[in-house]
Amino acid sequence: MKKIWVLLGILLLCGLIWYLFLKPFDYQVTFRANTYPGIVNQSIKSWSSEQKQSEIVAQDQLLNITQQLQFGDSVHIYHWQITPENDSLSRIKVNIEDPENGLANRLRIPFSDTDFEKRSRKTLTRFNELLKQHLREIRVKIVEPEMSPETFCACTKRETSAKGKALGMMKDFPLLNTLLAQNEIKLNGSPILEITSWDRQKDSIAFNFCFPVVRSDSLPEHPELFYRTVEGKKSLKAIYNGNYITSDRAWYALLNHAENENQKVTGLPLEVFKNNPNMGGDALRWEAEVYMPLSTSDEEAL
């Protein structure tokens, strides 16, 4: 009997040492979101960029993000872990630590609802509300695979963040629209965004913004303008409704779909915009066809 009590005492002591000194976080919050991990990932980053004294300090692929937030004199570290549970449900676990006051927090947490806990819950409740609001403002529907459009285009080229692509298109729209109209070049379809590079770790992209035009011998020249044929490719396809600033949510939905279906894709989406955002109106009525080309070789696969 004495040995049992000694063993229990050792286990209790080890558990106490782990809890007070070795546990990698002070507090944990878990909740779920009815969406894809990539959309959660982008929502965390977007929310962080809009907070005062907040930054993303590390990311491991899409599913693990480390964020640093400052509240007064305290710096809190949020370790986000995103786990897909099914095609449209993600589990979000946030391990939170206060490096300067970790021991004090751990001593108080079992006996009271501390300010640290209250602030953490309040912060993450606010994020969850904003995520739910964002999901009400967009729709992504995966449809049957299809060939992406093949067309001759007048294009501009830019490198931006994924979030900055809409601003880049807005800057180039007057050039394309005015130059082609002044030279009476006939348009031949809806505007196209062709992604040529996508670094998901850094959220940076390179893209061609293109107006399909009828090929002729008198196409206008401009130092920021070039012409190319956008090739049609067999692709996974989604219909996106919502503000075009966040149409990359459909990219992540297609990547998730490809993974679930064991299909290899290039990771370089193409968008066809069916509406002119300058006309305003309900953004949920704006539509974009989003194509994720299937890879044709191991070198090309994501």
Describe this structure as you would to a colleague.
By secondary structure, this protein is an alpha+beta fold. It is 31% helix and 35% strand. It has six helices and 13 strands. Strands 6-11-13-12-8-9-7-10 form an eight-stranded antiparallel sheet. The chain has a five-stranded antiparallel sheet with strand order 1-5-4-3-2, covered by helices on one side. Strand 8 and strand 9 form a beta hairpin. Helix 2 packs across helix 4 and helix 2 packs antiparallel against helix 6.
Features:
2 domains; five-stranded antiparallel beta sheet; eight-stranded antiparallel beta sheet; elongated; 6 helices; 31% helix; Alpha-D-Glucose-1,6-Bisphosphate, Chain A, domain 4; 13 strands; alpha+beta; 302 residues; Multidrug-efflux Transporter 1 Regulator Bmrr, Chain A
